[in-house]
From TrEMBL:
<comment type="similarity">
    <text>Belongs to the glycosyl hydrolase 13 family.</text>
</comment>
<dbReference type="InterPro" id="IPR017853">
    <property type="entry name" value="GH"/>
</dbReference>
<dbReference type="InterPro" id="IPR011840">
    <property type="entry name" value="PulA_typeI"/>
</dbReference>
<dbReference type="InterPro" id="IPR004193">
    <property type="entry name" value="Glyco_hydro_13_N"/>
</dbReference>
<dbReference type="InterPro" id="IPR013780">
    <property type="entry name" value="Glyco_hydro_b"/>
</dbReference>
<feature type="domain" description="Glycosyl hydrolase family 13 catalytic">
    <location>
        <begin position="225"/>
        <end position="619"/>
    </location>
</feature>
<dbReference type="InterPro" id="IPR006047">
    <property type="entry name" value="GH13_cat_dom"/>
</dbReference>
<dbReference type="Pfam" id="PF02922">
    <property type="entry name" value="CBM_48"/>
</dbReference>
<dbReference type="InterPro" id="IPR013783">
    <property type="entry name" value="Ig-like_fold"/>
</dbReference>
<protein>
    <submittedName>
        <fullName>Pullulanase</fullName>
    </submittedName>
</protein>
<dbReference type="GO" id="GO:0005975">
    <property type="term" value="P:carbohydrate metabolic process"/>
</dbReference>
<dbReference type="InterPro" id="IPR014756">
    <property type="entry name" value="Ig_E-set"/>
</dbReference>
<dbReference type="GO" id="GO:0004553">
    <property type="term" value="F:hydrolase activity, hydrolyzing O-glycosyl compounds"/>
</dbReference>
Length: 715
């Protein structure tokens, strides 16, 4: 029996725990004293400081530190053994991190002065090659170009050729086998991301990007969340290239000068468009038309735009150019773009380029060796490790420096560590001081210690980072997980005493709920988003006995809380005209007819759209509704009443006084007024207007049921 067969029959494996410890797993009695370890094909035995022999394993403590990317073999002539030492857990060891962390800015394929330079971080690889492949059939290798190992385990290849639009992969030798993968730092790819594509951005003919004037403060923002396909797919949308980047950049069917959809968002009063993920994702076949539907929270390539949104998904340059043009077109019309980014997991951890290049490094594992799964989709990225953190930061740089995005919304931000999020926010704000940076601070069961997670609980450690305030959402309409217990607007206002906390931006210590945030700028206020039921769908399920007009009043009341609270208002596309997803709670892969914006419904609800639009105008006009510090909130805020399902508060500074009334009761509520003052009503529940609806000189005011009223004191 040869050594290989003998090894196989006894199921023997060897792997590195770190750079000085090797574990051998064995299922049969073996004379471990006869084993020794060598480097590659050399005969010299490496020194073993200590050997721990157990029933099913033996642990070797090496005298000298081993090197990554070098083949080590366990040999025994007596036992007829010759096995490769696999890299095992060593990439997750502190020694590996310290020795191989690379801080250069040249990873990926870079075109420069008619040269093309490739660089890939794979310190565990014994060999690495650039494979130039056929764009139409990436299985066909046109050239195999050897790379040179350099500092920190970075492999390089440089050529005097300009390889613009060339398709390529990397081939690496790891654990005794060759593996092919795309480049994690590539800025474009072939269809469905099987191979990367070299892009010389100077050859794209993009022109000069539009610059916008500086944006004053996050509290002046109005975020409008929309999915690329939802927005234009409806047959009455009036947009060309439905579901594509081009829907935003082409004139409408009626020959409008700009896309009617873009004009609609701007006229509504939004300042920032938050687009659901644009980074290349893996759940749909880009070659299909029409493609299957998915939100896109399953990323593959974080530097590459999603190909199904391009006019020609088969053209690797089209998605780059059209994505750039889409964002530039928003800027040309005064709108900013917030990119929804998903760095917390990959579509498939095992097949992701990062895992193939450095197995076991970029993801978290449990104590039992399984992939951590706090995200609920099979894997959690290890942002706390240097090169995963660098990957995230480098991707953010690319989207800011090339695409000129204006901010980021971090999906499941609580999966990430605090330090990475702090560094990410600092990087983004250094590049664009008026950028927005916020995310989901949910505390999820990942293997990172709780005290290190970027969760809502740790908002005080991230004072420049915004967090989705799910308290506003659940207070207003109840939890989507418990439809038996409605919230303020659909429950008669029983929790009216809690509303002042949310109206004040969730920052005041003196409130019973205690402060969530250091400043109102951290509070992203919302009652619906792409997740869970729309506000309309939740209201009709919690109050099925209510008339449609009363459901609409509840809906307007909830939206007014978002818009008139201190902090940053966030609207889900279509919320302004009672968007429904036909009571589908999680529509991430539901058919397009469920997810699309119904533009006919928009036309039927012009009065609601005007109500939201004018509320946003009111917010914009009165600075006292947009305070940017805890101190300013405390000095301007007064709670007038929280009785009988109706909350009344006052905002007053040196130049403005507003009184806001939110009545969730099914009955009228009468509250006192200062009869020595004259008030102008600008919101009455059905209508919002900068032009006063009527003037009030009285010692009391009656608030209609299920309505918001706003008074401005005459000064």
């Amino acid at each position: 029996m040869n050594a290989s067969a003998a090894t196989e029959s006894r199921t023997i494996k060897a792997f590195m725990n770190n750079l000085q410890i090797v574990t051998i797993i064995h299922t049969a009695d073996i004379n471990m004293e006869a084993l020794y370890i060598v480097q590659g094909h050399e005969e010299e035995k490496l020194q073993i400081e200590n050997m721990e022999i157990m029933e099913d394993r033996t642990v070797l403590h090496m005298t000298e530190e081993l090197e990554a990317g070098v083949r080590y073999r366990i040999l025994s002539e007596e036992e007829e053994l010759d096995i490769i030492v696999e890299i095992g857990e060593s990439p997750r060891s502190p020694e590996f991190e310290e020795k191989y962390y690379y801080d250069g800015n040249d990873l990926g394929a870079v075109c420069e002065n008619s040269r093309t330079n490739f660089a890939v971080w794979t310190p565990v690889a014994e060999e690495a090659y650039v494979l130039l492949v056929d764009t139409g059939n990436t299985d066909i290798v046109l050239e195999r170009l050897p790379m040179k190992r350099t500092e920190k385990g970075v492999y390089r290849f440089s050529t005097i050729r300009s390889l613009h639009e060339a398709a390529y992969q990397y081939e690496v030798l790891i654990n005794g086998d060759y593996h092919r993968t795309a480049d994690p730092y590539a800025v474009s790819s072939t269809v469905n991301g099987h191979a990367s594509v070299v892009i010389d951005t100077q050859k794209l003919g993009l022109g000069k990007p539009v610059s916008l004037p500086a944006f004053s403060s996050p509290v002046d923002a109005v975020i409008y969340e929309v999915h690329m396909r939802d927005f234009s797919a409806h047959y009455k949308s009036g947009m060309y290239q439905k579901g594509k980047f081009g829907a935003w950049t082409k004139m409408g069917k009626n020959r409008e000068a700009v896309s009617p959809g873009l004009t609609y968002i701007k006229d509504l009063g939004a300042t920032h468009v938050q687009i659901l993920p644009l980074q290349d994702f893996g759940s749909i076949d880009e070659k299909e038309y029409p493609p299957a539907y998915n939100w896109g929270y399953d990323p593959i390539h974080h530097f590459v735009p999603e190909g199904s949104y391009a006019g020609d998904p088969l053209d690797p340059t089209a998605k780059v150019k059209e994505c750039w043009q889409f964002i530039n077109h928003l800027h040309a019309h005064g709108l900013r773009l917030v990119l929804d980014v998903v760095y917390n997991h990959f579509y498939n951890a095992e097949t992701s380029p990062l895992s193939i290049l450095v197995p076991g490094y970029f993801f978290r594992f449990t104590d039992s060796g399984e992939l951590s799964n706090g995200t609920g989709v099979g894997n959690d990225t290890a942002s706390e490790r240097g090169m995963m953190r660098k990957y995230i930061l480098d991707s953010l740089k690319h989207w800011m420096d090339f695409y000129h995005v204006d901010g980021f919304r971090f999906d499941l931000m609580g999966i990430h560590d605090i330090e990475t999020i702090r560094q990410a926010e600092e990087l983004v704000s250094e590049r664009k001081k008026d950028s927005l940076f916020y995310g989901e601070g949910w505390d999820l069961d990942t293997s990172l210690p709780p005290e290190q997670r970027a969760t809502l609980e740790h908002a005080g450690e991230l004072p420049a980072v915004g967090f989705f305030n799910d308290g506003v959402r659940d207070f207003s309409k109840g939890s989507h997980m418990d439809l038996e217990n409605p919230g303020f607007v659909n429950g008669g206002g029983e929790n009216a005493s809690e509303l002042p906390f949310y109206l004040s931006g969730s920052v005041l210590e003196e409130m019973e709920q205690g402060p969530l945030f250091e400043s109102p700028q951290q509070s992203i206020n919302y009652v619906e988003c792409h997740d869970n039921y729309t506000l309309w769908d939740q209201l009709v399920q919690t109050r099925p006995e209510m008339e449609t007009e009363d459901i609409k009043r509840m809906h307007r009341l909830a939206s007014s809380i978002v818009i008139l609270s201190q902090g940053v208002p966030f609207l889900h596309a279509g919320q302004e005209f009672y968007r429904t997803k036909h009571e589908v709670e999680n529509s991430y892969k539901s058919p397009i007819w469920i997810n699309q914006l119904d533009w006919e419904q928009k036309n039927r609800n012009a009065e609601s759209i005007n109500y939201i639009k004018n509320l946003l105008e009111i917010r914009k006009k009165y600075a006292v509704l947009r305070l940017d510090s805890k101190e300013a909130v405390r000095s301007a805020f007064e709670v007038l009443s929280t009785e009988n399902g109706c909350t009344a508060v006052k905002w007053e500074n040196e130049v403005e006084e507003l009184q806001l009334f939110f009545n969730a009761s099914p009955l009228e509520q009468t509250l006192p007024l200062n009869e020595e003052k004259t008030f102008h009503m600008i919101v009455d529940g059905d209508i919002a207007s900068l032009i006063p609806l009527r003037t009030i000189r009285s010692n009391e005011i009656t608030i209609p049921p299920l309505s918001t009223v706003v008074l401005v004191a005459q000064v």
